[in-house]
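Appendix B. One record, verbatim.
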Amino acid sequence: MICDKIRTLRDTCGLSQSALAKKIGVTRSAVNAWEMGLSIPTAQYIVAMAQLFHISTDYLLGLQNSQAIYLDGLTEQEKQLLYAMYGYFTERNTAP
């Protein structure tokens, strides 16, 4: 459900409800209501969260099972760090 994905993504990024709310332009109580399943974010805020977390809206909405990381909006340094991390984990998982 979208409420679980929002909470998990927010926690993974180390954001409080207040910090997420400030980044996308809503109140903390709105984020809390989304995470509790009391309301659902509008398309505007779904898009804002997808851009913030560098994921697809389909993943956030539960229409896509696998999570993808989008590199748009990342600096070259951030991209290189992601590539290095990916290489590390790929090598680690394929080692005998």
